[in-house]
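> example.struct
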C-alpha cells in the first residue's frame, strides 16, 4: 500500500478540495442554498450562521463557514431511504454496517418499529407511535428516562425537560455528561457560572491564548481564524497537548488566502507542551508554582475579588518540582517559560476541550486552569478569562433549557410555578448512571432525542446489554446510526424521523458556546411528501406530552399554564423560556425583533462573579496519581511481545462524533479507522514496525488487526478513533461530573 505524505499545515488544500467536490456534486446547488439559509451551523458550537446570513460569525464577520459545516449539511441532504429498504435487510445484516455505511443509507423518512423476536424493522404510522409512547411514558416516573444530543433546538430541549419534569422524572441524561460536564461543574464551583466567560468580541482583545486539550483545527475550525489574527497582532499561543496536531502548529485558513497559498499557512503555536495524558492538573500547579517564584501573582486582585487563594498558593509551594515534573512529564524550564508568558501578558484567555474534561479528575483539571487564570488576574476583564470550547452546535442550549441532572435552583422554582406543583426530588440519571441503571433493570422506557447513546459510551458490550433491558426505546433521528441497529430494546425499538434545523416548519433558536443565541428561520426539506413522512421534534414531543398529560393545563390556577398542543407554536415556547430561564429574557420577543443576543449574566468583563458574594472561589486541586498497569494486568495468557501505552480516544478529521464521513485522516497520516498512532520509540520498544498489524487490549475488550502508524505523539501515549475504540475499555468516571476518562485508557499493544 502506498502512503501519501502528511500535510504540513492544518486546513489548506484538502479542505478546498472538499468544498469543490461537494459544490460540484448533484446536490451542490441545494448545499449552497442551505449554507445561505438563515440558521446556525449544524456542526460545532462555535456558532457560525444565523440571521445575518449563513457565513457570518457572532462578531458580524463574513467568510466564516468551514468544511465541517459542509460535511454536516451534505449528509443531511442525502436522499431518503426507499419505502421498502427495511423489508430487504434483517437486523443481523444491518448490524454488519459500519458507522459510515449507516450514515450513507440516507435520510430516515418514516417511523419504524422493531419488535422483539422479529427480524426486520417495519414501517408504522405516527398514530401507532403515539400509542406505544402513551404506554411507555405511563410507567413509574423514575423508570422513564431520556437522553439527548445537542443538535436539536432550544425549543425542543425545553419541551423535552418540561414533559419529563411534568411526569415527575429527573432522568435527563445528555451528551454533555460525556463531554463538558467537568467544565460546568468545575466552573460553577469557582465562578458560579458554568459556561465560557469570554465572548467572541472579548476574544479579539486577548494577547495570549492558552489552548489545552483541543484539536480546534478539526473540531472548531473557525476558532483558528481568531488564533491567526492573535498571532498577527504579536500575541502568544500556548498549546498543551500530548499529541502534535499539525493544524495547531500551522494552519491554512481560506479567510487568509495569501498566507495560506503563498506561505503554506499561518503560524499558530508559540509554545507547544506535550504533557502525559491526564496530568494537566500537575502541569497547571507547576505553572502556579513558577508564577509564585517569578513574583507574577496578582495579590491585590486576589485579595479584592477572590477567596481561597492562600491555600492554592500554599499547595503549589509545598509541592516539589520533582513531583510536578514527574507527574506531568514536562520540564521545569518549559513550565517556567510558559508561566513567564502567562504572567507577563496583559490579557490571557484559557481555552480547553476534551483533553481536559475526559479524565477521572476532569473537574480538577478545569479548576486548576481557573485557579491559574485567577492567580494572574485573568478573569473578569475584557480579553481574558476561562473558555470551555463546547461541542455540539446546541449542546450548551440544552443545559440552559434545563436538560440536566443538576438543575439550577432558580429554574427549578420557575418550573414548579409553571407546572403548578413542586418538582420531584428524586435525583436523575446522567448518561453513565442511566446505563448502569438500565443494566440493573431499573428503566422501562427511554426517549432519545438525537445522538447515539450506544456508540458514544465506553464499554459497548455493557451499553448493548443495558439498552437490551429497557422495554421501549425511541430513537428520534435524522439519519441511521450504529445505535439504531445495536442498541436494541427488550420489546420495542422505534426509530422516529424528524426534520433537521434548516428544515423545521417553524422558527427555532440555538445557543453557541460563546453564549450567543441564534434565531433559525423556517425551512423546507428536500424530502418530498410523497416519499417521506417526517415531523418536527417540537410536534413530536408536544403530541406525546399532550397524550400523556391531557388536554387541560396541569394546574389551571398556576400563574402560567401549559397547554401542550398550543406549545407546537414555538413563539409560545419562547415566551415560556423567557419567563423561566435566567438570562433568556430577550428571547420573548425575538420573533418580532429578530435580534440575536448574548445571554445575560455569563460574560464577565468585571471581576464580579456569579457566586453568592460575587467573589471567585479558589480551592486546592490535588495532583493526580497516574499509574501504568504492567503487561500481566491485561491477562494475556501466552508470553507476549508488546508494550503498554496510554491511549487517548478521539475524533478524526473526517467524522462528527460517532458518525464517520470519511475513513482516512490525512493530517495524522492514518489511512483508515483501525489504526493506532504511536511514537516511533514505542514502536521500536514494542518490537514492532510501522504499518504492522497488532492487537490492542484494554480492560473492556480487544481489537485485532490494528495498523500501527508512527506519529508526533508523546512517548508512552497512543491515539485511536472513537467509536470503534469504545469496545476496549470500561467506564472510569470522575464521580463529581460523571464524565468518562476517554482520554486516559491504558492498553496493551501486542501480538
Ligand atoms: N468536525 C468535528 N467537529 C466537532 C466534533 C466532531 O466529531 N467533528 N465533535 C464536537 C464535539 S461533541 C466536541 S466535544 C468537540 C471535541 O473537540 P476536541 O476536544 O478538540 O476533540 P478530541 O478529538 O476529543 O480531541 C481532544 C484533543 O485533546 C488532546 N488530549 C488528549 N488527552 C489529553 C490530555 O490528557 N491533556 C491534554 N492537554 N490534551 C489531551 C488530544 O490529543 C486531542 O488533540 O468537537 C465538536 N466539533
Ligand atoms: N471514546 C470516546 N467516546 C466519546 C468521546 C470521545 O472523545 N472518545 N466523546 C464524547 C462526546 S464529547 C460526545 S458529545 C458524545 C457524542 O454523543 P452523541 O451526541 O450521542 O452522538 P452523535 O454521534 O453526535 O449523534 C449523532 C446522531 O444524531 C442524530 N441527529 C443529527 N442531527 C439531528 C437532529 O437535528 N435531530 C435529531 N433528533 N437527531 C439528529 C443523527 O441520527 C446522528 O446519527 O460521544 C462521547 N463519546
Ligand atoms: S467553526 Fe463550527 S460553527 Fe463555524 S462553520 Fe465550522 S463547524 Fe460550523
Ligand atoms: Mo462533545
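> example.seq
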Amino acid at each position: 500500500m502506498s502512503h501519501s505524505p502528511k500535510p504540513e499545515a492544518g486546513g489548506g488544500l484538502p479542505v478546498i478540495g472538499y468544498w469543490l467536490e461537494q459544490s460540484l456534486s448533484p446536490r451542490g446547488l441545494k448545499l449552497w442554498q442551505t449554507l445561505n439559509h438563515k440558521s446556525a451551523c449544524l456542526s460545532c458550537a462555535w456558532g457560525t450562521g444565523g440571521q445575518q446570513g449563513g457565513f457570518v460569525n457572532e462578531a458580524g464577520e463574513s467568510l466564516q463557514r468551514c468544511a465541517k459545516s459542509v460535511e454536516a449539511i451534505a449528509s443531511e441532504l442525502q436522499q431518503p431511504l426507499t419505502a421498502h429498504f427495511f423489508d430487504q435487510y434483517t437486523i443481523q445484516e444491518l448490524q454488519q454496517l459500519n458507522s459510515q455505511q449507516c450514515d450513507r443509507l440516507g435520510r430516515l423518512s418514516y417511523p419504524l418499529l422493531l419488535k422483539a423476536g422479529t427480524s426486520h424493522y417495519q414501517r408504522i404510522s405516527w398514530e401507532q407511535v403515539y400509542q406505544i409512547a402513551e404506554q411507555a411514558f405511563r410507567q413509574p416516573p423514575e423508570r422513564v428516562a431520556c437522553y439527548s444530543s445537542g443538535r436539536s433546538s432550544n425549543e425542543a430541549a425545553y419541551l423535552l425537560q418540561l414533559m419529563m419534569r411534568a411526569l415527575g422524572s429527573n432522568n435527563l441524561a445528555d451528551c454533555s455528561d460525556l463531554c463538558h460536564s467537568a467544565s460546568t461543574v468545575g466552573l460553577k464551583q469557582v465562578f458560579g457560572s458554568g459556561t465560557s466567560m469570554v465572548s467572541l468580541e472579548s476574544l479579539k482583545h486577548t494577547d495570549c491564548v492558552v489552548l489545552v486539550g483541543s484539536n480546534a483545527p478539526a473540531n472548531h475550525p473557525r476558532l483558528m481564524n481568531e488564533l491567526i489574527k492573535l498571532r498577527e497582532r504579536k500575541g502568544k499561543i500556548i498549546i498543551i497537548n500530548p499529541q502534535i496536531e499539525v493544524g495547531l502548529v500551522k494552519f491554512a485558513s481560506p479567510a487568509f488566502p495569501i498566507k495560506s497559498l503563498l506561505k503554506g499557512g499561518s503560524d499558530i503555536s508559540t509554545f507547544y507542551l506535550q504533557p502525559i495524558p491526564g496530568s494537566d492538573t500537575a502541569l497547571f500547579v507547576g505553572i502556579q508554582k513558577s508564577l509564585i517564584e517569578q513574583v507574577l501573582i496578582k495579590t491585590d486582585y486576589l485579595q479584592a475579588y477572590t477567596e481561597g487563594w492562600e491555600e492554592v498558593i500554599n499547595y503549589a509551594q509545598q509541592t516539589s518540582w520533582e513531583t510536578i515534573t514527574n507527574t506531568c512529564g514536562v520540564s521545569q524550564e518549559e513550565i517556567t517559560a510558559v508561566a513567564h508568558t502567562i504572567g507577563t501578558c496583559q490579557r490571557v484567555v484559557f481555552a480547553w476541550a476534551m483533553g481536559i474534561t475526559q479524565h477521572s479528575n476532569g473537574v480538577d483539571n478545569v479548576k486548576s486552569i481557573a485557579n491559574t487564570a485567577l492567580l494572574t488576574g485573568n478573569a473578569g476583564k475584557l480579553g481574558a478569562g476561562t473558555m470551555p470550547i463546547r461541542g455540539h452546535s446546541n449542546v450548551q442550549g440544552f443545559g440552559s433549557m434545563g436538560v440536566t441532572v443538576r438543575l439550577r435552583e432558580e429554574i427549578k422554582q420557575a418550573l414548579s410555578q409553571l407546572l403548578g406543583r413542586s418538582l420531584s426530588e428524586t435525583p436523575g440519571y446522567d448518561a453513565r448512571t442511566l446505563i448502569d441503571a438500565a443494566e440493573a433493570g431499573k428503566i422501562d422506557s427511554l426517549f432519545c432525542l438525537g445522538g447515539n447513546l450506544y456508540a458514544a459510551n465506553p464499554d459497548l458490550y455493557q451499553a448493548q446489554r443495558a439498552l437490551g433491558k429497557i422495554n421501549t426505546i425511541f430513537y428520534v433521528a435524522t439519519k441511521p446510526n450504529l445505535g439504531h441497529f445495536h442498541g436494541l430494546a427488550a420489546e420495542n425499538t422505534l426509530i422516529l424521523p424528524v426534520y433537521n434545523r434548516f428544515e423545521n416548519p417553524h422558527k427555532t433558536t440555538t445557543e453557541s458556546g460563546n453564549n450567543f443565541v441564534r434565531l433559525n428561520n423556517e425551512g423546507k426539506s428536500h424530502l418530498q411528501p410523497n416519499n417521506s413522512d417526517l415531523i418536527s421534534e417540537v410536534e413530536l414531543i408536544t403530541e406525546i406530552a399532550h397524550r400523556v398529560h391531557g388536554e387541560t393545563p396541569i394546574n389551571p390556577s398556576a400563574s402560567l399554564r401549559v397547554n401542550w398542543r398550543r406549545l407546537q407554536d414555538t413563539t409560545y415556547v419562547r415566551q415560556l423560556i423567557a419567563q423561566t430561564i435566567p438570562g433568556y429574557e430577550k428571547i420573548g420577543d425575538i420573533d418580532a425583533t429578530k435580534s440575536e443576543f448574548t445571554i445575560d449574566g455569563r460574560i464577565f468583563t468585571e471581576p464580579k462573579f456569579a457566586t453568592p458574594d460575587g467573589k471567585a472561589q479558589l480551592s486546592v486541586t490535588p495532583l493526580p496519581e497516574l499509574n501504568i498497569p504492567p503487561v500481566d494486568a491485561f491477562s494475556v495468557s501466552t508470553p507476549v511481545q508488546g508494550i503498554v501505552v496510554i491511549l487517548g480516544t478521539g475524533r478524526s478529521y473526517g467524522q462528527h462524533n460517532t458518525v464517520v464521513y470519511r475513513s482516512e485522516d490525512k493530517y495524522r497520516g492514518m489511512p483508515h479507522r483501525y489504526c493506532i498512532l504511536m511514537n516511533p520509540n514505542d514502536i521500536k520498544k514494542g518490537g514492532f514496525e510501522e504499518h504492522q498489524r497488532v492487537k490492542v487490549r484494554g480492560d473492556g475488550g480487544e481489537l485485532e488487526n490494528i495498523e500501527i502508524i508512527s506519529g508526533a505523539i508523546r512517548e508512552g501515549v497512543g491515539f485511536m478513533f472513537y467509536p470503534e475504540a469504545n469496545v476496549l475499555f470500561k467506564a472510569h468516571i470522575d464521580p463529581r461530573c460523571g464524565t468518562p476518562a476517554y482520554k486516559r485508557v491504558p492498553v496493551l499493544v501486542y501480538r
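> remarks
The first strand starts at residue 10 and ends at 11.
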